[in-house]
Amino acid sequence: MTLSWNEIKDRALQFSKEWAGTSNEEADAKPFLDAFFDVFGISRRKIGTFEHRVKKLDDGNGYIDLLWKGVILIEMKSRGKNLDKAYQQAKEYTHGLKQHELPKYILVSDFEVFRLYDTEENTSLEFKLPDFVRNVQHFGWLMGYPKKQYKEQDHANIEAAELMGKLHDRLEEIGYNDHPLEVYLVRILFCLFAEDTTIFNKQQFQDFIEQRTNTDGSDLAAKLQELFQVLNTPKEKRFKNLDEQLADFPYVNGKLFGENLPTASFDSKMRQALLNCCYIDWSKISPAIFGSMFQSVMNPKERRSLGAHYTSETNILKLIRPLFLDELYREFDASKGSTPKLRGFHKKLSTLKFLDPACGCGNFLVITYRELRLLEIEILRALNKSGQRVIDVRDIIWLDVDQFYGIEYEEFPAQIAQVALWLIDHQMNMLVSSEFGQYFVRLPLKKSATIVRGDALRIEWSDLLKKYNLDIEANDTTVIVGEPPSEYQLISIKTKNLTIIDERSDLKEKVWLNTSFDFIIGNPPFIGKSNQNAAQKTAMEKVFAGIKSAGVLDYVAAWYIKAAQFIKNTNTKVAFVSTNSISQGEQVGILWNLLFNHYKIKIHFAHRTFKWSNEAKGNAAVHVVIIGFANYDIPSKTIYEYDDINGEPHQIKVKNIGPYLVEGKDFSLLPIEKPICNVPNVLWGNKPVDGGNLLLSDEEKNELLIKEPKAEKFIKPLISAYEFLNGEKRWCLWLVDAEPSELKQMPNVLNRIDVLGKCASKA
Predict the structure, then answer these.
(1) Model confidence at 438, in pLDDT bands (50, 70, 90)?
(2) Residue 248 zone, left/alpha/beta (φ > 0; ψ -120 to 50; rest)
(3) Which residue in 502, 477, 473, 497 sits closest to 487, CA to CA?
(4) E strand or H helix at 412
(5) DSSP structure class, residue 253
């Protein structure tokens, strides 16, 4: 029986304590490794052998300390021995193994230090024996759990945003603000990224500023204006006598540089601030992360907690993997070995459409696009092995940014989302270039994501999809087109399974044309009922018109209803990150009974409560859930359970997921005001009405005890729902057994009682 993670952690602590100080390889290695595997409930005798003999490269014999064939090779050394040499020795041993015996992992240890190598991914992890308990989940694969790897963001993103923040502040100080400032910064952002990622020549933007503008910054604004015009003009239409350094910049298009902006003004410090931005290697910065960073840049107050509000890649992957990515990889694996199946699967990927109806700076869309492009590369590798020749790489890259749609209330993040998708597209094109030995860049920009600025609760989500009437009869199953099939949305016939003939090529195949989004994803706003402004409350009232008690719902609940309305009678799947309050307490009955009973929603997977966090300073401390759902049922569902809300989850397969995100029926309790038996109505539960005079925070408690140590016997812990859910401490003065003589010796306590009495008399 598989052990729980809590039991494994307990065993790990015992293991660390029992084997502390062990040092001798010959005497202790075997019992040490037996105990190591026992931490995970694995009998070493069933999976691995000690002193496995192998032929060395010099024809001598070597002896592997422990080998679990195809899984792990372990080499032990006495304490203090060189683990680099131990690893090299282990690598040499692998040359004597058969193909099926080669280990995925190599572990070397001197009893105090553990160093784990992943031979396939070329990564390593190191920790000491006392830290074993904090690293046990890195060994989940020993028990058959799929290995989870979530890439965390680089702190260089924060540094870059701070530099842009200084430039933003100065431009705003001189009066360059609002829409022009937002567009201006987005253009600069593109140029900074472009010169480090081969869109421009290396340091082309930096050289232009350093070599073509005055050090006092007096002409920098005019020069940038000229550059923006050049980037928006095809080379054949540019002035013949254009400065050669300007003429060397490519034509970008994409409407990014099309709008005429007011001319800004720079000084020497502002020019230097822009050059400091150029000195960062922007190629290493994830477009998925810096978008939200720059959103904070626009608000100096938010900048103090820079990074507190953006979604980490870790959390995005927790949503998109179970929603669609894992399934797509399973379909890819099933298609290997069949060229027609691989091509059909590739075509399917190119027609998938994604909507984030609260997209912000596009984090979810960007990471989704990146992961799909990585899968496309895997498809192309498989096709390449099957003999498909690549003459022009442009003909085989079918995925593009126009498969992505978003709705965003604010203008600046909406613009960032648009640009971020272009930037990640370019990064993926560079990977394709390396893979196939052909330089591949999409310039000028021809396609773009559809990012609409507006209120997602008022916009009809279907309006984002472009509709093309193919003008064919209702019973037709063939259509001839002059553009790629993925450009079309079928609206004029009932069937979706058509044969497409492309007049420009020999393409003739059956495809599935989308009339809706395949997946709706995102992170709607975290706003509780008491923090909603008037406009938000009005939007909630419109969405929940006629629903009793809907006023207690969090703002995010409206996105669930809008999504449920949109996906009715479709195969569209949805997943949102939400505050965990929608799966607790009184909100559950109101929201989920409506979703289950009226909209026939089924929950397909759910991450139970975990802490929303990232590696930025000012890290947000929010407890969230992820819920994936659709308008149809599936036989097996997955709950992601967290033994530690700061850690990683383990999977639980269940038949059905209820609204409390545990295995159970689609049923929730509704709040009732009348008692179920013949007793008076209860207006309040256990509610302190002392005006706060008998309640103490940790700080207040310590301060009182310094003044009056005798009060300690009367101070008791107070645990209400808030303290329990958030792990905070609060205290109260419990004076039930206090004698008057004792109270007279505590003037500070008496003062609190006196104030309490005055409050009571006024009431």
Answers:
(1) low
(2) alpha
(3) 502
(4) helix 411-436
(5) B
Q: Is residue 544 in some structural domain?
A: yes
How far is it, in rounded angstroms, from Cα 741 to Cα 710?
A: 12
**Contact status, residue 650 vs residue 145, Cβ threshold 8 Å:** yes
Return the minimum-mean-pLDDT range out of 218-222, 326-330, 426-430, 701-705: 426-430
The answer to whether residue 64 is domain-embedded is yes
Between CA 503 and CA 482 the distance in angstroms is 6
Domain-terminating residue out of 654, 673, 707? 654
Are 457 and 543 a contacting pair, CB within 8 Å?
A: yes
Structure tokens at 371: 């992961």
Do residues 213 and 329 share a domain? no
Distance (Å, rounded) from C-alpha 495 to C-alpha 22? Answer: 71
- Which amino acid is located at 566 in the chain? F
Q: Are 375 and 329 in contact (CB under 8 A)?
A: yes
- What is the tens place of the pLDDT at every residue in 100-155? 889 999 999 999 999 999 988 888 889 999 888 778 878 888 887 766 453 443 44
Q: CA geometry: angle at 54 spanning 50 and 57, to 5°? A: 145
C-alpha span between 741 and 761 (Å, rounded): 24
Residues 161 and 299 in one domain: yes
Q: How many CB atoms lie within 10 A of CB 216?
A: 12
384 is written with which tokens?
A: 């390449």
The answer to whether residue 690 sits within a structural domain is no
- CA–chain centroid gap for 339, Å, is 33
Beta strands in 56-196 (DSSP E): 61-68, 72-76, 105-109, 113-118, 123-128
Same domain, 487 and 583: no
Q: Are residues 191 and 109 part of one domain? A: no
Cβ distance 183 to 415 under 8 Å? yes
Please identify, among 143, 173, 202, the residue that sits at the C-terminal boundary of a domain: 143
Same domain, 555 and 604: yes
Rounded Cα distance, 315 and 300, in Å = 26
Q: Choose among 422, 456, 638, 599: nearest CA to 540.
A: 456
**Cis bond upstream, residue 444 (ω within 30):** yes
Q: Please choose, from the candidates 398, 357, 356, 403, the residue with its C-alpha nearest in 3D space to the C-alpha of residue 377.
A: 398
Please check the confidence at residue 311 and state whether its pLDDT lies above 70: no
Task: For residue range 660-693, list pLDDT tens digits in order.
Answer: 999 988 876 666 666 667 777 766 667 777 778 8
265/354 same-domain check: no
Q: Are residues 199 and 271 in the same domain?
A: yes
Structure tokens at 318: 């927790």
Half-sphere exposure (Cβ direction) of 73: Cα atoms closer than 13 Å: 28
**Pick from 376, 601, 561: nearest CA to 368:** 376
Strands 573-579 and 105-109, bridge-based pairing: unpaired
Spatial strand order of the sheet with 105-109 comes to 49-55, 61-68, 72-76, 105-109, 113-118, 123-128
> Mean pLDDT, the chain, as a whole number?
82
Q: Are 266 and 220 in contact (CB under 8 A)?
A: yes
Residue 441 pLDDT class (50, 70, 90 cuts): confident
Contacting residues for 110 by C-beta, under 8 A, at least 6 apart: 23, 76, 77, 78, 79, 80, 81, 83, 86
Domain of residue 542: give its range: 524-654
- Count CA atoms closer than 13 A to 420's CA, side-chain side: 33
Is 199 in a helix, a strand, or coil? coil
Long-range Cβ pairs for the range 423-427 (8 Å, 24+)? 423/190, 423/193, 423/197, 423/287, 424/287, 424/288, 424/366, 424/369, 424/370, 424/373, 425/369, 425/373, 425/400, 425/401, 426/197, 426/199, 427/197, 427/283, 427/287, 427/370
| Angle, CA 287 vertex, CA 285 and CA 293 arms, to 5° | 85
